[in-house]
Amino acid sequence: MKNHKSFQVCVLLACFLALAARPGVSFAEKRHCPYLLVVSWYSVTSLDQITKEWLEKANATPFDGIGAMLSLGRRAARAPDDDKYLDRIRELRRYAQKDIWPWIFLNRMFGGPSLAGRKVYSLMTDSERTHFTAIKGMDLYDEQGALSAFKGLFRQALKVARTFGSPGIIIDHEAYNNPGARWIPSLRRLQGKTGPEIVRRLEQIGQELAVIVNDEYPEATLWFSAIEPDSACGYIVRGMLEAAVHSGMKFKVVEGGEKTVRYVHKTLPELEGAIANQKETLRRWLPQYPDRLIPAGTTTLIDNSEQLGPWFKAQYEGSRIKSVEDMAPFLRVLFSNYRYIWIYAAREAHFDPFDPVTGKKFFQVIDRVRSDTKCPQ
Fold first, then answer.
1. 8 Å CB contact between 296 and 256
2. What is the SS3 assignment for 324?
3. 0.85 exceeded by the pTM?
4. Four-CA torsion 352, 167, 284, 193, nearest 10 degrees
5. Is 106 within 8 Å of 233 (Cβ atoms)?
6. Helices (H), the chain
7. Are 308 and 294 in contact (CB under 8 A)?
8. Residues 254-261: what's their mean pLDDT?
């Protein structure tokens, strides 16, 4: 009997170690509800900045997942030629108590001559300016190598997520270099192609990205900040989802709601209307891709309404929200409607999730509301 019990203990221990050693963890296995992700420009902006000290700061937050940029969206960055950097991630993984979500930018593929008139242009090096201004809206056919560069970063992000044991990656949908180029009429004009040709190519890019996911991290979750169905990003995602359905791929896609739910709500009815807007926007897609397309909620938390940056101050003008305590009812609505939520910790809102002193009030409100709210089934 004693030997039998020892054998059982050994089997259980072996199972535990096997689970702990797995390179990836399915999003479905995450039990916290709602699952909270934080995305912030206070975060690290490159792989090299992910350190033991930074991970310890991330561990002190109430969030389940933390966004970490692989490279700034404006930079003409490329993925490393080898996987030696993954050794460092494996070493750092033991310090991570939170999911680290690599964060990349669809903007890597966008550009055009109009970039010269944008603020981001002044931040670029001469070689970056030459590279991005030569792009015809979006590098659909890899004429400038921007599509290949994005695919490299996409693959790298999946490798990092799997090595960290995190559920997946974050994809910022914004075309910061050329906002108009995310729409088909603009791309049609810039590319000299027909609308159907542009749509077919975007969906093909989505299919190519789906293959990369299936190769690198089949169970990954791809958390898009927003998916506008009729935009360039929307057609890429549709191509990905179609590939997943027809080929039996396992990955999932999150629609983050940045354009529908949005970051700012002055009243509870306004937030409830935004949630309804997201459902209506995804009405065509959700029945087509059940269990593959996941709607998520989002918000930005503020504390002192008088100290906000210009954009947020204008958005909250006339609102009764003056501190983060006033945002508790808004969090309750989000927590009651979504299993997956991301909070944009904006610099203009002065919420640094990695500063335990300034973040304390925010964390207390999040913890209190989370413990008091029943998660949707």
1. yes
2. helix
3. yes
4. 80
5. yes
6. 2-21, 52-59, 85-93, 126-133, 146-164, 184-191, 195-216, 232-247, 268-281, 310-315, 328-337, 356-372
7. no
8. 98
